[in-house]
C-alpha cells in the first residue's frame, strides 16, 4: 500500500513551537523584479496571485527562493512542486469554526499548565468568524417569523454565543460577526472582501481560506480563496502557510449568448456538469473568453460557489470592468477604489475578457457554449445530475423505475400511482410519488444574486394576482443571504407576495441545506411512510444528499429561486411546465408557468431601481441582544463541566501510536462515503447514542439542537460519528448507523462497538472504496474517528482535503495499489490487521499490511 501523505504526527504538536520563534527575513529575499519576468505574463492570473504571495513572504524558512522559482516556472513544475501559500485572512463559520476556537482555547490551557504564557496562543492571521449556521427554523408562515426564530436561536445557542463573544474579547486578530447578520459567504462578499489589502506599507491581493468548502464563492470577485478544514485553518491562524501542490490550471473559455429563460443557477448547473465531465478534481479553473462579459458579478459568485460540486480547488474569475462596476456599488470609498484599480492593472491582475491577446497559457482549455444551457434542475440525489426542466416529469418517472443508486428508487410499477389521503388543519389532501413537501429559497448559493431573487419575487407577485396558492402543508421558507436581500425584496414590493405564498423570511443563515428545518407535520410524515412515498424537496442551495433535508424526504432537487416557487405552487415535480398548467385561477382558467414568469426586461428594470449602493451600507442592525450578551472576561476560558455545548477537548492528552497491531475493522464501507456520512451536521435522532448522552444530561429532544451546533462538545460529536441514517456498512447489509462487533458477533451502534474495542485495548481501522471523505470540509470527520480509536483508513481513493485532515489527526490514510480493493484481495473485513509504520517515511511510500484470518496467518503484502 502507498501512504498518501507526507507526515503523521500528533495533532497541533507543531503549532505551539511556531509561536516561540518568528523567522522572518522577508526583505532579504523579496525580489519584486520577478513580476517583470517574461514568464509572468504567460501565467494564469490565479497563479500570479500565488507568485506575489511567495515573493512577499519569501523568508528562507517557510518560503524559500526555490518556491518562488517553482511558481514562476509553473508550466514546467505544475502538479509536481509543493509550494507554501500565506493567505491574507481566514474565514470561519460557526459550525466549523467552533471546533477551531475550542481547540485554541484548549491550547491556552495546555501551554499555561506547562508554565508558558497563554497569550502566545493568538491568531497571527486576521480571522473573521461569522455566526450564521446556528439558524434553525422553528416558525414559518407566521407574522414576525424571523424575530421569533431569532429569539429561539438566542435561547438555544446561548452557551455557544457566549463562547464566541469570549473569543472576540480574549483573542487578538479575531472578529466575530453575530447571528442574524447574514450568511458567511454573503458577509464575505459584501463586507470582508478587499480585493487588495493595504497593511504595513504593502499593497497586495486579498486572499482567504475558509472552513467552508464554498469559500470559493469569493473567486467570482477575483479574490483567490478556497475551503480548508478546521485543522488546517488553525495552522494558518497561528502563522503557518497552507501547503499545496502547484496546480494544473484549466482555462474554461465561455462563448455564445445566454438564453433569455436561463438563470444563474441554470448556468451554474450547466457548467457544473461540463466541468464534472472534464475531470477537474484538485485543479484550479480560471474563466476567460467573450462569454464572461455576459455574466454579472453576482452570476460569477454563484458559479464559483458550486466549485466543490465539480471537485475543483478554485473557480477563478479575474477582475475586469464588470467586477469594478460591482465594487462601485458597494462600500468601497473612491480612494480605496482608485488604489485597487491602479494596483491590479500595474501588476497585471486585471484583464479584459474580450481581448484574446491577454489570454495566458493554461494546462488545458475547455470550451462551454452558454447558448446550449437551458433551464434545469439538479437531482434527485447529487448536484451533478442535471435535468432539463422540460424533461423533469419523464426523468422522475425513470428514477422511480431505476434500481436504488445515485438516481434510482426502485418503486414497483404497481405502486407508482399510489395516492395517500391525509388531514392537515382539518382539510383533506393527497400525497403521491413526487409530491413536494419542502420548498426552500435559502441563503448560500443564490440569495446574493439580485436577478434570480427578484425573478422569484416577481413570479410570486404574478402568481398571487392570478389567484394561485401554495398548499399549507408544504414546508416553505425564505432565508436571505443578508439584510441587503430583504431590503431590495421589500423595496421592490415583492416581499409581501412571497409571504402570501408561505415564503416568509425566517432569518439569516444556513438553514434547510444543512437540515436546520422545522419538522414536517406529523400527518405528512405518516402519509409518506404509509405509502412508502418518494416525497420531494426543492431548494435553491448547493447540497442535497439523500436524507439531508429530512430523513423521510428521499428526492431533493436544486433549482433556481423562481423554480422553487413554481414547484411549490404545483405541489409536485411530476409536471411538464410547457404542456401542463401550474394551477387554476378563481374562474377555473388554466394558468401556465409562462403566464407568470417575468421577462428579463421586467427584472432588470426593478433591479436598477432597487439594488443601489446605499443597500450595502445597511446590514449591521438588529444586534442589540449581542451587545447585551454576557461573556467571561478572562485570559483562559472557564469551562463549565455541566455544559453540553462547550467542552475542553482531549486531544492534548491522547498519545498516537506509531504502528498498528492486530486491529479490527470498525466499518466495511463502499464508494463515495461523504463527510456527511462520517460526521452528520443535521438533527440528532432520538434513538442515537448522542441522544442518549444528552438525555442523561436531562435534555429533552426539543433541546437536542443539531450535530453542527454541538461541534464544541467532543462527547456529542464522538457519539455522532458515523451516525448517518444513510450509512451503508457491508457488515450489516442495510443502511443505518450500526456495525458488527466482531469478537461478540453483536450488532451495535458504531459508538458502542468502538467503546468496547477501546475498553479491550483493540486498535481499529476502516475499510472503504473510492472517494472516501468527499463532500464538505469537516474536521470532525477526522476528529470523530480518531476519538473512536481509528488509527488507519484503507481505501481505494480519498478526497484530498479529508486525507489531509486524517493525517493531521494521526490517522494513516492508506490507499490500495492500482487495480486492488477489498474485494479483489478477498477481504471479508473480519480479519485482524497489522501495519508497521516507520518513524520516517515519504509520500507514496508503500507499506505492508499483514492480515490474519481467524487463527491462520496470511503473508499478504499489499505492495
Structure description:
The chain is an alpha/beta fold and 863 residues long. The strands form ten sheets. Strands 32-1-30-29-28-25-31-33-34 form a nine-stranded mixed sheet. Helix 16 crosses helix 22 and helix 26 packs across helix 28 (780-788). The longest helix is centred in the first third of the chain and has 20 residues, at 94-113.
Number of helices: 29
Strand order of the largest sheet: 32-1-30-29-28-25-31-33-34
Shape: globular
Percent in strands: 15-25%
Query: Which spans of ≥5 residues are poorly predicted at pLDDT below 50?
Result: 1-32, 135-153, 619-624, 854-863
**What distance separates the N and C termini?**
5 Å
- Approximate helicity band: 25-40%
Q: What does the largest sheet look like?
A: 9 strands, mixed
Average pLDDT confidence is 84
Number of strands: 34
What radius of gyration results from the CA coordinates? 26 Å
Which class best fits the helix and strand makeup?
Answer: alpha/beta
Summarize the entry for a quick read.
By secondary structure, this protein is α/β, with parallel strands linked by helices. 31% of the residues lie in helices and 17% in strands.
Descriptors for this entry?
nine-stranded mixed sheet, alpha/beta, 863 residues, 4Fe-4S, five-stranded parallel sheet, globular, disordered N terminus
Helix-strand layout with pairing:
Blueprint (H helix, E strand, L loop, with lengths): L1 E2 L9 H8 L5 H4 L15 H13 L7 H8 L1 H4 L4 E4 L3 E5 H20 L13 E4 L14 H12 L1 H13 L3 E4 L6 H9 L3 E4 L2 E4 L1 E4 L13 E4 L2 H8 L4 E4 L3 E7 L8 H14 L6 E5 L8 H9 L8 E3 L4 H8 L5 H13 L17 E6 L6 E3 L7 E3 L3 H10 L17 E6 L2 E6 L3 E6 L8 H16 L9 E4 L4 H9 L3 H6 L21 H10 L4 E4 L15 E4 L2 H10 L12 E2 L5 E2 L1 H4 L3 H11 L13 H4 L32 E9 L6 H4 L10 H8 L17 H7 L17 E4 L4 E4 H10 L4 E4 L12 H9 L1 E6 L4 H9 L3 E4 L16 E4 L9 E2 L2 E5 L2 E3 L5
Parallel strand pairs: 3-4, 3-8, 4-5, 8-9, 11-12, 11-14, 12-13, 19-20, 19-21, 21-22, 25-28, 28-29, 29-30
Antiparallel strand pairs: 1-30, 1-32, 2-10, 6-7, 15-16, 17-18, 23-24, 25-31, 26-27, 31-33, 33-34
Helix pairs in contact: 3-4, 6-10, 11-12, 16-20, 16-22, 25-26, 26-28, 28-29
